[in-house]
Design goal:
Alpha-Beta Plaits, elongated, three-stranded antiparallel β-sheet, Rhomboid-like fold, single chain, mainly alpha
Length: 326
């Protein structure tokens, strides 16, 4: 079947069963095959009125490709009595990339926290140049939206953001892959700082990664209803209204949990509630878009995920270059 245009794929998807009925083990295996070949799918438990069991469904325009991938896999993996294992080829989502980024934050804190008289570099200069000064941002110094995420007031401020932020981003990495999760987290932090500057006005100033931390929390809350990274894609079958109600019902608990977390960790007397709130809202928006697109087109492959990870690292690096050259 020819692939329809983009809007039809996103707004009017249709799904086809690859097999009338499968066991749970077979359905999971087939799902992993499709995920490893970057074919969007969803696993569906059939009601008893339809015979029970499970089915793996793909959009109509992926049906031929999906069937070919399953046939090739079965032909190349004829059971021989020794069991069967399939290597998971989905994006890497371990803890190493997140630990590496947190190490970079600590290293950068150590570097800019020292004076270098020979170069005319002092800690207060970095803070003056890179903080989220709303007046400067709204005057065109856009690099501050990203550089402020890399600056911290002291060691305890850094440690808290590294520990709490690292956990949330790592959880997002497990669902989306390290590259996409980190790219969205940094982007949520940038958007959160922008909205906070616009909301609080020119006299506001802030630093810290916590805006991006709550962005990661928002991303996790938003992708939960879509089942992204959990092996089940989509919001069921039926009318658009029914699927919308399923989404709202599925989103209530994770979004409420995120708001509770915001109230517990992000609303103290010495914290920037606006940055945390807008970071969380930015994460919700980005997570919703990512979850929606993942149900239609699948998650990025390993190559693209690696590229997104490098892009996430490049955003603050480029911002600092811009700051020093401006």
């Amino acid at each position: 079947m020819p692939c329809p245009d983009f809007l039809r794929r996103v707004l009017m998807p249709t799904w086809t069963d690859l097999s009338p009925s499968l066991s749970l083990k077979e359905a999971r295996l087939w799902s992993l095959v499709l995920a490893s070949r970057f074919v969007p799918y969803r696993m569906w438990q059939k009601p008893e009125s339809e015979g029970g069991g499970y089915s793996v469904q793909v959009q109509d325009w992926f049906a031929e490709r999906a069937a070919d991938e399953i046939r090739l896999f079965l032909a190349e993996n004829v059971p021989d009595g020794r069991g069967l294992e399939l290597v998971d080829l989905r994006p890497a989502s371990g803890w190493v990339p997140t630990l590496f980024v947190m190490f970079l934050f600590v290293l950068f804190f150590w570097v800019y926290g020292r004076a270098y008289p020979g170069f005319g570099l002092y800690p207060n200069l970095w803070l003056k140049l890179g903080s989220a000064d709303a007046g400067a941002i709204l005057s065109g110094q856009w690099w501050r939206l990203a550089t402020a995420l890399t600056l911290h007031a002291n060691g305890s401020h850094l440690a808290g953001n590294a520990l709490i932020g690292g956990v949330f981003v790592w959880l997002a990495c497990r669902r989306l892959g390290s590259g996409l999760a980190w790219f969205l987290t940094i982007l949520a932090g940038v958007l959160g700082n922008l909205m906070n500057s616009m909301a609080l006005g020119v006299h506001h100033n802030a630093i810290g990664f916590s805006t991006a931390t709550f962005g990661a929390a928002g991303i996790l809350a938003a992708i939960a209803p879509f089942g992204v990274g959990g092996g089940i894609h989509g919001l069921g079958r039926g009318s658009l209204v029914r699927r919308f109600l399923i989404f709202i019902r599925s989103a209530l608990i994770p979004v409420a949990a995120g708001l509770g977390l915001l109230a517990m960790l992000g609303a103290g007397e010495e914290t920037d509630l606006g940055a945390h709130l807008f970071g969380f809202l930015s994460g919700l928006g980005l997570g919703f878009v990512s979850g929606f697109l993942a149900t239609r087109f699948g998650l990025p492959g390993k190559g693209m995920d690696a590229g997104l990870f490098m892009a996430a690292l490049a955003i603050p690096a480029f911002a600092w270059m811009w700051a020093w050259l401006a």
